[in-house]
Structure formats: structure tokens, C-alpha cells
Amino acid sequence: MISLLLLTASFTGFAQEETPEENMEKRISTIENSVQTMDNTLQKLSHLKITGYVHAQFQMTDSMGIINSYAGGAFAKDVDKRFGIRRARLKFVWDKQDEEMNTMGAAVFQIDFIQTGVTLRDAYLMGLLPCAKWIGLRVGAFDKVFGYEVVYSSGTRETPERGRMSQTLFPGEKDLGAEVFIQPTKTSRFNFFKLQGAVYNGTGVLNNDFDRKKDFIGRLTFFKNNKSESVKYSGGVSYYNGGHKNATKFKYELGTNADGNPNWNIVDSSADNLSAFSKQIYKGVDGQVNVDWKGGITSLRAEYIFGNQTGTPTGSATPRTLATGATDHSYTRSFNGAYFYWVQNILHSKHNIVIKYDWYDPNTKVTESQIGQKGTNLTASDIKFSTLGLGYYYNLDENWRFLIYADMVKNKATQLAGYTQDVKDNVLTLRVQYRFF
Fold first, then answer.
1. For the domain with range 50-436, which CATH number is right: 3.20.20.70, 2.40.160.10, 2.60.120.340, 1.10.10.10?
2. What global pTM score does this model have?
3. What percent of the chain lies above the pLDDT cut of 90?
């Protein structure tokens, strides 16, 4: 009986041994499962894109301590030369697209590492409605969608900085808010326009809101090209309606003094003004055209903005925090400004030149000769400035760019101390840029 049991067990063990074919099938199945797992992981990672760029530069000025420099910020009192990391951006984008390559959803996060610290640039969610892919929503921290230059990426812009007007009206370029946009899908024949409407805090990405007033921006753009795509053209109109809480009960308007010269006069000193809001109304129009021809690629851009801007006696910039000074009264100025770009690639080579002219007039109701007159209280914040920029850049490859750019800033002479002649505030920038994808 024992012998029979041992024989049966031996036979059963032999019967359970795998054949070479069965062993190979198991190995193939294991490999297939591993490959499928790796493929699933890669599919998920394919939705993540990491990009960024670094701008390292050296700057020289024609005088020390330019406080009101728009070429990368103020220069310290005893500084006329400086090295710096102007930008060091790292951007993460997670998105999902449908079969027609429409981005159905995305999460975007961007930070900036410079010598003064780490700051947030973007942090928003964006998506299209599944039932109507031509309607989308964006919420979080993102660009103020006014005009062309404000939203044009610093990673591709041909000049070191945005113009004085853009920096004054839209400091930091970004804000916290929500946007609804309408744009036909890529397969639609009407995919040549975009309508945007956004509401923001009005204080920028890095600042908490200090009042209940919210800013609205509306923008309509179009973009077209010819059949060969050798000519591309676009344009848009923008509207801004915003404001902020008054810092004091005193409201000023531009009038005249006893001599008939322009002067800021108190028009209201009611205590109710402390809970009221000063308005900011901008209107703008812009246009762009790119022409690819034998001489290279020619790019022309222009934008004009006008409206009313409420600031203080010493500044016309959009406030990012609530003014608390006893003399930070509300001064509402009529302004206008514009910029013009000509960017020329030379014979489809790596060499490029750029010429830019811009101006910002914070107070169109006065002339420079009236500023500083005896008996008037006009300030440096009422002076018009214009800038001629000349630059050359060399694109070594898709990553490296070498740039030399001169900002030549001009203002007409006034009767105000410190501005009786053109202020020496020209800046030369030498920059190395690296962009990774």
C-alpha cells in the first residue's frame, strides 16, 4: 500500500511539471503585463510637460541710482552697473486633449527663482465644457487678458522688458481671478476669433485683496493667414473696468489755480469717500502682422491704450496694496500710451534686429512746460516719457539666445526740480537666455 502511494505521488508530481511551451507562454504573459504597466505609466506622464527659461544679464546706465527704471527695476543709490538673474522660470502643465487635439482640461503651475527670492507666477485650472467645446473656463492666478504685450511671454519676447505703459497699468501682468472664454474648436471654420471676459481682484498674484471692488477685462481677438501661411495677421480690442478703495476722504480733480494754470484741486472731502471707489477705465486696440519673404521674417506690432487712471499725487501706477499715507489722496488722470515693434530676421539666418518705440503720457491734459510752474502742484507723476529701444539678438539654436538691447528714455524739460532737462536714465542690457522644453 505504501509503495502504491509513493508511486501515485511521483506520477502526480511528474504530471504537474510544466512543458517548455507552457513555461514560455507564462514568461511572455509576464512581459506583456510589464509592458502594459509601463505603457500606462508613460501615458500618464505624457500629459505632464515641464518647461522653463533663465535670463542672466549685465546692465549699465548713464547715471547712478535710477529709481524709476523700467528696465528690470530700480537701481540702488550708488549703482550704475549690475549683474542679475532677471528671470528663472519653471513651469508645469498637466493637460488632456481629445481626438481633435482640443485641450479639454489643464492644470498649470509656474514659479520664478531669482536672487531676491522665489515667487509664484501662475497657478490655474482651465477646461472646456464637454457639451460645448467652444466655451472654456479658467480660474486661479494667470495673465490679465488685456492687449497683446501684457500676455506675450517673456520667454519669447524680443525685448528685455515690457514697455513703461504696460508696467504702469498692469504691474506684474498677472492676477487672481476667473475667466470665461469663447473660441470655436480647431476643426471649425470659425476658429479665427476668441472672446474673453475675466474678473480679477486687481491687486496682483502676490497680494491679498484689500477691498470688495473687482476688476473686469473684456477682449475680442482675431487671427488669420493666407493659404501659404507666408502672411499672418491678428488684432484685438480690449476693455478694462476696475478701481480700488480710496485711501483718504479727499478727492482731487485737475482744474486751474488763480493764475489759470493747471492745478490739482479738492472737489470732495466727504467722509463717505473712505468707503467709495476710484475708477480705472482703459480702452485699447492692437494689431500684428508677420510676413515671411526672401529677406527673412518681418514682424510688425502696435497697440494704443487710453482712458482714466486713478493714482496718488506721487504715482499713476495701479496700486497693489491699499495706500495708507495721509497724503495719498485720489488723483484721477486722463492718460494715453502706445508701442510699436519692428522685428526683422535677417535672410532666414540666426541674426535678428528689433526696433521699438513706446510712450506713456499719464496726464494728457497738461504739457511738460506747465509742470513745476510757481503756484501749481503738478508732480513728476504727470510727466510724459517715451523710449526708443534698439536691439540685436542671435538665436544659436532653439534653446540659446544672446541679446544686446539699449533703452533710450526721453522726457521733455519741465520747471520741476530734477526734471528741468532730460533725465539720464538710459539702460544698456546684455543678456544670455536659455529656454528648455
1. 2.40.160.10
2. 0.89
3. 72
